Amino acid sequence: MPFAPAPNGSAHSLFREIVAGAPRFDSEIWDNVSPEATDLINKCLTVDPHLRITAEDALQHPWVSNASPIIQRRSSCGSTT
Fold this sequence. Notes:
This protein is an all-alpha fold. The chain has helices spanning about 10-20, 35-45, 55-60, 60-65, 70-75.
């Protein structure tokens, strides 16, 4: 699990990191996650809702907008446009 507590940590310490807006991406699990994906996750986890990425902006984020055509096709299946 990407946000699993560090081996010495606890679920409570993980929760505190996320609530403080300071999640760590230093476990081996994150080694294979692209910088664009990590950036989007950081923007989604921004504590201040006025600074947090909107759903509309998230859909325009490079990690989403540069997704493979298969993913884009699936995400537009329910679209009315």
